TrEMBL record:
<dbReference type="InterPro" id="IPR001763">
    <property type="entry name" value="Rhodanese-like_dom"/>
</dbReference>
<feature type="domain" description="Rhodanese">
    <location>
        <begin position="88"/>
        <end position="171"/>
    </location>
</feature>
<dbReference type="InterPro" id="IPR022376">
    <property type="entry name" value="PQQ_CXXCW"/>
</dbReference>
<protein>
    <recommendedName>
        <fullName>Rhodanese domain-containing protein</fullName>
    </recommendedName>
</protein>
<feature type="signal peptide">
    <location>
        <begin position="1"/>
        <end position="18"/>
    </location>
</feature>
<dbReference type="InterPro" id="IPR036873">
    <property type="entry name" value="Rhodanese-like_dom_sf"/>
</dbReference>
<keyword id="KW-0732">Signal</keyword>
Amino acid sequence: MKRALAAVVGLLPALALAQVPEPEGYRMDHYRAPVPETLAGAAVVGPEEAHALWETGETAFIDVLPRAPKPANLPEGTIWRDTPRDSIAGAIWLPNVGYGAIAEVTARYFRDGLAAATGDDLAHPVLFFCLDDCWMSWNAAKRALEYGYETVYWLPEGTDGWSFFDFPLERVTPHSGHP
């Protein structure tokens, strides 16, 4: 028994370092899971590189953390409070645009939000993030590349990695027009 346990424990470092391959399309489920180290067409950055981009003010930071909708069948008089979101200071929050499949109204909201953040300039750099090990930002960055954005950054560590370095966070609300 001890030998079997030692063998399993010995495999843990190798399992932790296992590469997650990029899917051919979008990630369609299990969005909070290990992510790839790459995104074809995008530059993958860590928190310190993202902070350097943030300091220049030349890159639009796009937070894609999903937001639960208010349930339609709440009993009358029930108080609904959205979960607050602390994000990278100056970021625009476009919730729910990082799912693998999105409705046309959400795709339009995403395009409109990107246009607002970039001055409708496909050459304007954009950086996508969510939380650590969150496929939402990977999907959103991939979708922005398909929309024609030329300089796309992806911060896989998201606000978790950002806050680890004590970089500035601020309370945000979803960008107007949220579906």
